[in-house]
Structure formats: structure tokens, C-alpha cells
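Continuing from the previous page...

OK, I double-checked the sequence for Receptor activity-modifying protein 3 against my notes and this is the correct one:
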Amino acid sequence: MDSTHIILIVMDKNASFILKLVLVSICANNWIISQLTAGASNTGRSLKTIRCNETSLLLGMQLCGEYFKDQMKPIDQKNWCNLSYFIWEYHHFSTCTENFTVSEGCFWPNPLVQSYIIDIHKHYFSNCSLDQVIWEDPPDDTLAILILIPVILTILMIALVVWCSKRNDIFL
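Thanks. Re-ran it with the corrected sequence; updated C-alpha cells here:
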């Protein structure tokens, strides 16, 4: 056998492997698509377009909000800014609004839902902003030190570079 026959045999082995790989990928792709199509047709909502029912959505937001308000009643008002006191209640409220929005065929986030959530935040969390920090300059002595240290270090580094460049025997 000469080198030409060996290359053809190797090419035939690689070609059959690639052909098998292509056939397997086509079969797998068809199977996955058929499973996805079957799953979508089982839901009954595969090709239907659900319209957002804004009236029902607002009523649902009221229900979620009322439940949240009932859950917040036992929590002392001074603890409204501490999330650890009401994290579960807020999570439930958020999940309720999201699930209800999706069930009504609306997208999430939704401007109507967002405005309702903002109203809830204004009612419960409007006084939770942090106090403003008033920035002041440091004392003059501290400021002078903070300015002089980098200036002196820069001058020293320049002097070191000039000194080392004049002394070529160090690097040879």
C-alpha cells in the first residue's frame, strides 16, 4: 500500500464518522422538536394569543395588596424599614403580583403593576431612606500629609530612575 491508499482509508473512516454524527444530530433534533411541539399542544395555549385583561389585573393587584396589608398589620411600624421583619410577606406580595400578571396574559413587569407596587412602597417604606451624609474636608494637617506623601514619592522615584540610568555598571 502506498501513501495515497492510506490517506483514502483514513478519509473514509473520518467521512463515515462525520456522516454518522450528522445523521444522529438530525434524528435528535427532530425528536426534540416533536417533544416540544407535543408539550406545547398539550397546554392548549400553544398558538393562542392571550390578551392582557387590565381590569382583572387591577382587581388582582388589589387582592395581592390587601393580603400584604393584612400581613403587615402585626408588624410594628418602626420595623417597616427592617426587611428581616417582613421579608416573607414582601416575597409573597411580589410573587402574587407576578403570578397574577402572567395569568391574566400580561407581561411582567407591567406599568400598571409597577405603579401599584410603587404606591405600596410609598405607603410602607417612604420613611426608610438613609440619612444624608455630609462630606467635610479633613483637617488641614491631614490634608497636607495626604498631598505631600505622593508628591515626595514621585520625586524620589524620578531621582532613583535618573541615578540608576547614570550607573550602567549595575545592570551589566
